Hints:
Elements: H1 2-8, H2 11-24, E1 31-36, H3 42-55, E2 60-64, H4 66-71, H5 73-81, E3 84-88, E4 95-97, E5 104-106, H6 115-133, E6 139-140, H7 151-163, E7 168-169, H8 174-180, E8 184-185, E9 191-192, H9 208-213, H10 220-235, E10 242-246, H11 248-251, H12 255-263
Parallel strand pairs: 1-2, 1-10, 2-3, 6-7, 7-9
Antiparallel strand pairs: 4-5, 8-9
Helix pairs in contact: 3-5, 10-12
Amino acid sequence: xxxxxxxxxxxxxxxxxxxxxxxxxxxxxxxxxxxxxxxxxxxxxxxxxxxxxxxxxxxxxxxxxxxxxxxxxxxxxxxxxxxxxxxxxxxxxxxxxxxxxxxxxxxxxxxxxxxxxxxxxxxxxxxxxxxxxxxxxxxxxxxxxxxxxxxxxxxxxxxxxxxxxxxxxxxxxxxxxxxxxxxxxxxxxxxxxxxxxxxxxxxxxxxxxxxxxxxxxxxxxxxxxxxxxxxxxxxxxxxxxxxxxxxxxxxxxxxxxxxxxxxxxxxxxxxxxxxxxxxxxx
Length: 282
């Protein structure tokens, strides 16, 4: 029902987000920036991007499967010293690059396996981050965004995360932000940060896959237009909650996109892991 409403009345999405921010946000820092590092090519790209963000005084979160984090630890360890923070993204590599087309394809999805398999993947990712950094993660994001979003899947996921000490999740699509609020606290205390959608087509995630990398991508020009639309809301003093992510390799050499992201600096929140400083509640 939420998808249908947003398709018929897309303006309700921004209106709902602005109303929520006016009632709940106690800071102008309501822009959350993260990156999903799903293949080996993202490691050096992520480090290069975080250098750029660090120079601008911005922090960003990085969701990295444990296998890739371990394999590229020298790059990611440097990233953590300049303002990057880690999001548990499971352990197994869940995507690969086709050697002929250069396109990404899925190799592992929580949607397709038994509960015990994805639960162990979360634990293995958790243990890898703890071993490498000395700190247990408190934030989780499911692989392949939006594939594990049925009510039953989320009920099991959230219960498992809380049982294992997690405080935050960013694992749901823009429809959940419309229905429940762009940041919402679940009955078990876990805080969910749904990803943001397009202001013109709210069911469309703002990400580099949908706009740049997918076979049916909407196009780089549309991505730039979308970022400019969001920035305009901030420049007007409206400060919606905006939660977006990119695959680093898709944008690392795109100066225009990077410059647009840096423009959000005055509104950029220091991260999910510092959420309580924002003091939002339902």
